[in-house]
Amino acid sequence: IRLQSVYVDEHSCIGCWNCAMIAQSTFFMEEEHGRARVFQQWGDDDETIQIAIETCPVDCIHYIPYDELVRLEKDRRGQNI
């Protein structure tokens, strides 16, 4: 059981596409604002996700506890990203 979830800080994301190109089953690019989002938690294997995280030029992808993910996603709703 994984205790951490993958989270993209969309406010910091610059839309470089690195994560979405590497871990295609985990990340996607949100079309309206051109920012990365997590499509499916752990859609790719651990190594692929880690490579995607490490290629982020602004370090906006993090592992966080599930309860924090729920809180951040709730806070994000309705925000203009």
Task: Please characterize this protein's 3D structure.
This protein is α+β, with helices and mostly antiparallel strands and 81 residues long. The chain has one domain: Alpha-Beta Plaits (2-Layer Sandwich). Helices cover 31% and strands 22% of the residues. The chain contains 3 helices and 4 strands; from the N terminus they run E-H-E-E-H-E-H. A two-stranded antiparallel ribbon has the order 1-4. The chain is globular and about 30 Å long.
In short:
By secondary structure, this protein is of the alpha+beta class. The chain contains three helices and four strands; from the N terminus they run βαββαβα. The chain has a single domain, classed as Alpha-Beta Plaits, CATH 3.30.70.20.
According to CATH, the fold-level topology is: Alpha-Beta Plaits
The CATH class designation is Alpha Beta
Amino- and carboxy-terminal Cα gap: 31 Å
Radius of gyration: 12 Å
Q: Can you list the strand order of the major beta sheet? A: 1-4
Number of β-strand runs:
4
Number of helices: 3
Helix content range of the residues, please? 25-40%
Which structural category do the helix and sheet elements fall into?
alpha+beta
Structural shape: globular
Q: Name the beta content range.
A: 15-25%
What is the arithmetic mean of pLDDT?
A: 93
Overall tally of domains: 1
Assembly state? single chain
The string of secondary-structure elements, in order, is EHEEHEH
Please describe the biggest sheet, giving its number of strands, its sense, and whether it closes into a barrel.
2 strands, antiparallel
Level-2 CATH architecture:
2-Layer Sandwich
| Low-pLDDT windows of residues | none
GO molecular function, one term: electron transfer activity
Keywords: Iron, Iron-sulfur, Metal-binding
Organism: Fragilariopsis cylindrus CCMP1102
Protein name: 3Fe-4S ferredoxin
